[in-house]
Amino acid sequence: MFGNYLDGNIGNTLDGVATAYERHIPAIPERRDVGRRKYRTIWISDIHLGTKGCNADLLIDFLDRVDSETMYLVGDIIDGWRLKKKFYWPSAHNDIVWRILKRAKRGTRIIYIPGNHDEMFRQFTGLNFGGIEIRRAAFHDTADGRRLMVLHGDEFDAVMLSHRWLAFFGDTLYHLMMGLNNGVNAVRRAFDLPYWSLSKMAKHKVKNAVEFIGKYEETVARAASERGVDGVVCGHIHTAEHRMFDGIEYWNDGDWVEGCNALVEHFDGSMEILNWPEEIAKREADEAATCVNAARVNAPPVPEAA
Question: Domains in the chain, please, with CATH?
Fold first, then answer.
């Protein structure tokens, strides 16, 4: 559905998409038989709709099981870089857009901060489409009084700023790795094994990647300090993290390509990073344990030996 609007004027595109999705019938129906977890705020980023690396099924499961007063979409929601090279837009990606727009219609405040992969939407900063506010950056006040700067984070990526061609080249290599990651997980699913991220493991093993992430986190935290806030929430590097830098809180909400993470704020202001594959594994283990216990309770008594 989204592809029908890509070639027109982008302002009309956004209006057209919002209107069309009101009539959309999702291929994966929204789950209504589950109790949703309630949060004050949710941050998600780096979904990369329009790529095969997007873990759409996991994100749909997440969206169907959580709710919040406010949701921040912290950039790279749609991957315009990949869509320009080759169009890819399965029905599950339509279902994600539909769920987000429906959430806005139900009254959730949604702030969309475009990143480098969906930078084409930055020209509409300050506008509202389908109940979604488009911002270049935002400031969030937590329930316990902290003030957080929210931005995608590519503004502090030295490669993006100085060597944009290298960023595009790296993006191509990254998507090749994600194709391999998809193959690995297809095999794991065949053996009933949980999701595992090849690229996430590689990041933690490669020294240069670890050094880049550390420098990036420190640079973003320093920028937050200069702006007089208590902390910062960003995405961009696909590495969920919480660290402190000289009294400044650094939060990265991760991604939905590798780690499948979300950052949430509880109603008392406390925050945590959710790893959704781990949450699914816990849920399935609890459901299995419940079934076993129910079977034991309902099992007929064993007759006593004569």
Answer: 42-287 (3.60.21.10)
The full DSSP string for the chain is: -GGGGTTS-HHHHHHHHHHHHHT---SSPPP-SSPPEEEEEEEE----BTSTT--HHHHHHHHHHEEEEEEEE-S-SB-HHHHHHS----HHHHHHHHHHHHHHHTT-EEEE---STTGGGGGGTT-EETTEEE-S-EEEE-TTS-EEEE--SGGG-HHHHH-HHHHHHHHHHHHHHHHHHHHHHHHHHHTTPPP--HHHHHHHH-HHHHHHHHHHHHHHHHHHHHTT-SEEEE-SSS--EEEEETTEEEEE---SSSS-EEEEE-TTS-EEEEEHHHHHHHHHHHHHHHHHHHHHHHSPPPPPP-
Query: pTM for this structure?
Result: 0.78
Q: Residue 136: CA atoms inside 13 Å, Cβ hemisphere, count?
A: 6
Q: What is the pLDDT of residues 82-99, one digit of tens each?
A: 898 889 999 999 999 999
| CA 176 to chain CA centroid, nearest Å | 20
- Taking a C-beta distance cutoff of 8 angstroms, is the pair 4, 94 a contact? no
Nearest residue to 71 via CA among 25, 93, 48, 38: 38
pLDDT score at 175: 59
**CA distances, 217 to each of 77, 78, 208, 233 (Å):** 21, 24, 14, 10
Do residues 112 and 121 touch, judged by C-beta distance below 8 A? yes
Residues in CB range of 107: below 8 A, 6 or more apart:
none
pLDDT digits (tens, 9 = 90+) for 272-294: 999 999 999 999 998 888 787 77
